[in-house]
Amino acid sequence: MGKRSVIPFGPQHPVLPEPIHIDLVIEDEKVVEAIPSVGFIHRGLESLVDRRDYNQMTYVVERTCGICSFQHGMGYCEAMEHVFGVEVPARAKYLRTIWAELGRIHSHLLWLGLLADGFGYENLFYQCWRVREKILDMQEMTSGGRLIFSVNKVGGVIKDIDKEKLDIILKTIDEVEAELETIKDTFLLDYSVQSRLQGVGIVTKEQAHDLGAAGPFARASGIKTDMRKLGYAAYPDLDFEPIVSATGDSYARCYCRIMEIFQSIDLLRQAIAKIPNETDLFTPVKGNPDGEYFMRVEQPRGEAVYYVKASGKPYLDRFRVRTPTFANLPGLCEMLKNTQLSDVGLLVLTIDPCISCTER
Amino acid sequence: MSVLKYAPEALKNLFKPPVTTKYPFEPAVYPEGARGHIEIDIDDCIGCGMCVRSCPCGTLSVDKMAGTWSIDRFDCIACGYCVEKCPKKCLHMIEGYQTPGVKEGAVTYTKSPEQLEKDRIAREEQAKKAAAAKAAAAAKAAEAKAAAAPSGIEQAAAKKL
């Protein structure tokens, strides 16, 4: 048994631009314990509910995170719609699905690029982000913002995507799919990539379940969980199955996310084929909200929970977001035990941490 | 295997121009409807303050009497909620981001002197109309009171009898 010492990881670390601090207790080169601490970028977005009315909060909630911004806005709006008891027009539901899946593709491509950067494959990193740029252009073309969509509204959506733009999306996702096929092979079949990912940071199904893991992190450990199956937006009309891997190592997480991009492309095609021709984009809501609701949506990083409580005033009484990274942090700390110090940066990346979301 | 796979890609990249553009030496291309920044047709503004009340980050301010509208560009999140709320539709979301600012603080847009004069005349006319309406209403009320008073006396007289 070697001498124990503590090495700080973060809040500034090359593998991820966001501030998370982990105290790594190490013995020789092996990590024995990992103690996380967050709180470097807390902005107090949840407490803004007592100063911003429920419509303004749509824009505030959306800015919780830059990557899954649409899903944040959608989760909040769905929760508020349940409080008001309004039904969203069918076209708005499909539009939300299309935007959510575009967001998922770009988020996963971003993560794949960061992963490639994490294990030192710079070329692959650029390839991923070049493909991602096409998706960002689609987002800017349809919503007006590259990352922050601002198209959600309590009751529906503000903007429509017309037929020509839907055709452009279809054409672009065909190109993206073709480029992804090459990238996929490199991630999944390349010897050097496999040597960095396979068998590293294994989380068993029981551990993932007990530690409350969410999203691709849980699915990579064999837990078949996907909040889209709960049936919000247009997901009940679309045909898909959660992508699950049994091994629970870093390679499995990479595999799950790559396959989810293909799944999202398939969902986009299904949604665009089935989108109804309606002119109504939102149902007007009247009065002030009264009641409470618990909404769960599947973000690119996993399950996000939105709790809203209102009592007949324009300002909500309470608003709470539980983000997937927060759920995955216990799993991360368990995963880091008994790994090599040189793998820590990569392993932190494999849960796809989003610290801005976590601290809000 | 992967070396061979990426060889055509590498060769192509040798002769292809870069994917990125040399902004600001080349102009950036924005799609139609991109949320860049907010502009105002200040002469159409009625100073109602709906934009100020709707703004989630409190970056706008309006002075109705002075005919000014101010925005702190550093605080604006370009969400477009004020554009949606404006009753006169004089706020617009323009494509393209603004050039970097050189100093902090709000930018103030003031109405043209002609428009300010027009507004002043309109306000005075409105005030006159309101005063006339008030006077008419007061006269009507007094008339009604006068008409109602004799009946009151009659009623009192009837009671006495």
Note down, in words, how this protein is organized.
The complex is a heterodimer of chains A (360) and B (161). Chain A has 360 residues and is of the alpha+beta class. Chain A has one domain (42-328): Cytochrome-c3 Hydrogenase, chain B (Orthogonal Bundle). Chain A is built from 12 helices and 8 strands. Chain A has helices at 54-62, 69-84, 90-118, 122-143, 163-189, 191-197, 205-210, 216-219, 250-274, 324-336, 344-350, 355-359; strands spanning 4-9, 21-27, 30-37, 152-153, 156-157, 290-299, 302-311, 318-322. Chain A has a 3-stranded antiparallel β-sheet. In chain A, helix 3 packs antiparallel against helix 4 (122-143) and helix 3 runs antiparallel to helix 11 (344-350). Helices cover 45% and strands 12% of the residues of chain B. In chain B, the strands form 2 sheets. In chain B, strands 2-3-5 form a 3-stranded antiparallel β-sheet, with no helix packed on it. Chain B starts with a helix and ends with a helix. Chains A and B meet through helix 1, helix 4 and helix 5 of A and helix 1 of B.
Strand-helix topology:
The complex is a heterodimer of chains A (360) and B (161).
Chain A: E1 4-9, E2 21-27, E3 30-37, H1 54-62, H2 69-84, H3 90-118, H4 122-143, E4 152-153, E5 156-157, H5 163-189, H6 191-197, H7 205-210, H8 216-219, H9 250-274, E6 290-299, E7 302-311, E8 318-322, H10 324-336, H11 344-350, H12 355-359
Antiparallel strand pairs in A: 1-2, 2-3, 4-5, 6-7, 7-8
Helix pairs in contact in A: 1-2, 2-3, 3-4, 3-9, 3-11, 4-5, 5-9
Chain B: H1 2-15, E1 37-40, H2 50-54, E2 60-63, E3 68-71, H3 81-85, E4 91-94, E5 107-110, H4 113-160
In the CATH classification, which architecture of the largest domain in chain B applies?
Answer: 2-Layer Sandwich
Q: Looking at the structure, what is the overall shape of chain A? A: globular
What's the helix-strand series of chain B? HEHEEHEEH
Strand order of the largest sheet of chain B: 2-3-5
Could you name the CATH topology of chain A?
Cytochrome-c3 Hydrogenase, chain B
DSSP helix fraction of chain B = 40-55%
Largest sheet of chain B: 3 strands, antiparallel
Largest interface here, residues on each chain?
A: A-B, 24 and 21 residues
